[in-house]
TrEMBL record:
It comes from Paraglaciecola mesophila. GO terms for molecular function: dioxygenase activity. It comes from the Bacteria. Keywords: Dioxygenase, Oxidoreductase. PANTHER family: ASPARTATE BETA-HYDROXYLASE DOMAIN CONTAINING 2, ASPARTATE BETA-HYDROXYLASE DOMAIN-CONTAINING PROTEIN 2. One of its GO terms (cellular component) is membrane. Residues 200-365 form the Aspartyl/asparaginy/proline hydroxylase domain. InterPro entries: Asp/Arg/Pro-Hydrxlase, Asp/Asn_beta-hydroxylase, IPNS-like_sf, TPR-like_helical_dom_sf, TPR_rpt. This is Aspartyl/asparaginy/proline hydroxylase domain-containing protein. Pfam families: Asp_Arg_Hydrox. The keyword Oxidoreductase applies. The lineage of its organism: Bacteria, Pseudomonadati, Pseudomonadota, Gammaproteobacteria, Alteromonadales.
Length: 389
């Protein structure tokens, strides 16, 4: 590093001129310093500030560019240049430098007040242009006849993602990933013709459930330590207790005869559903009960080759909802929700009463019969391997 000690008296003198409001003299002094010691960041900053105070924004920008060229990650310099571009009526160009500063300070805490204020200006400018951009696009689309919610839910979601209103969530199964499947959070009821018959049985299923609820011995904790759900170990309010509980008809491919006999109508209804049968794996079918005020935290399912179905049986008023990816839906008694649980999802019950759904899994409809057979053979082999270890 070059020795700049010889220049320190002139630097302090120039800073004094700035502090005393003698901007033209300060500019001249800093300009001389920049020629004498071009590596001195403080001199270029001083020159940039003096020029800015004199409203010579092009000269101020040129001076701060010398800092950024030497120190491209200097957050203070990036914010300063962005501010000067704003003063010079170049907001769009300024946004790029604010964005650079915002990216460099992501997750940083206890930043100097000067930096924090600059970042807030950047966020405000970003919001302004995001709003202008989205409004322009929406107006242009509406002139062509676009109406949200009328033609394509996927296009509506694409716009929300483009406008920064929604995040992109992808399949991230914790056990097995099958490539090439559509990235969909929810499926529509109309895509599964067999759902009509199941939903029609909701009153009869509810009657059997209410009889079962008079004795709680059929329900057990949905999550228990060591049950292949390591992401939940820290969530003690739903592990090894009945805050989130289950009464299984089918548990990893094994039928519970006692519950099947206690709820024969529900069992027959499930028999008419295209459940996947893989030895030791699936189907999984159960009454899933979530107590009042309990939240199931965000998590991912084991496989992306299945879908999870909720048939809401007991749904209190203002119960809460189910978020899958960037979409949230609410439960309505007797109207099924079908979703890909390999996408991050969470659920909550904000009411003062229990919520119960009939939960079961089905094959992804996009899989061919050959693919389903191959997946079945593979998962059985995985299970056999684990048993021998």
């Amino acid at each position: 590093m070059s020795d700049t000690s010889f220049i320190q008296p002139q630097l302090q003198s120039a800073i004094g001129l700035l502090q005393n409001g003698k901007m033209q003299q300060a500019r001249n002094a800093f300009d001389t310093l920049c020629h004498q010691a071009p590596q001195l960041t403080q001199a270029w900053f001083g020159l940039a500030y003096a020029c800015s105070q004199l409203q010579d924004y092009p000269a101020s920008i040129a001076a701060i560019d010398n800092v950024i060229q030497r120190e491209p990650k200097n957050v203070k310099a990036l914010i300063f240049k962005a501010d000067q571009l704003v003063y010079n009526d170049q907001e769009r160009m300024a946004l790029a430098f604010y964005e650079g500063a915002l990216q460099l300070t992501t997750n940083q805490q206890n930043l100097p007040d000067e930096i924090t204020r600059g970042l807030k200006r950047g966020l405000a400018l970003r919001e302004k242009y995001d709003s202008e951009y989205s409004n322009y696009l929406l107006n242009a689309l509406q002139k062509k006849g676009y109406q949200r919610g009328k033609l394509s839910q996927r296009f509506d979601e694409a716009l929300d993602i483009s406008f920064g209103k929604k995040e992109i969530f992808l399949q991230q199964p914790t056990r097995f990933y099958f490539p090439g499947l559509p990235q969909r959070a929810f499926y529509e009821r109309s895509e599964f013709p067999w759902l009509n018959a199941l939903e029609a049985k909701t009153p009869h299923i509810k009657a059997e459930l209410q009889t079962m609820l008079k004795g709680s011995e059929q329900f057990s904790p949905y999550l228990e330590r060591g049950n292949d759900e390591p992401n939940f170990v820290q969530h003690l309010d739903i592990v090894d207790n009945l805050n989130w509980s289950a009464a299984y008809f089918w548990h990893y491919g094994t039928l519970d005869d006692a519950i099947a006999q206690q709820c024969p109508i529900t069992k027959r209804a499930l028999d008419e559903v295209p459940l996947p049968f893989i030895s030791g794996q699936t189907p999984v079918a159960l009454f899933s009960k979530l107590k009042a005020g309990i939240k199931i935290p965000p998590h991912h399912g084991l496989l992306n080759t299945r879908l999870i179905c909720h048939l809401p049986i007991i749904v209190p008023e203002n119960c809460g909802g189910l978020r899958v990816g960037n979409q949230t839906r609410t439960w309505q008694e007797g109207k099924a929700l079908i979703f890909d649980d390999s996408v991050e999802h969470e659920a909550w019950n904000n009411s003062n009463e229990e919520r119960v759904v009939l939960l079961f899994d089905i094959w992804r409809p996009e899989l061919t019969e050959d693919e389903r057979r191959l997946i079945t053979d593979m998962l059985v082999a995985v299970d056999e391997y684990s048993e021998h270890q």
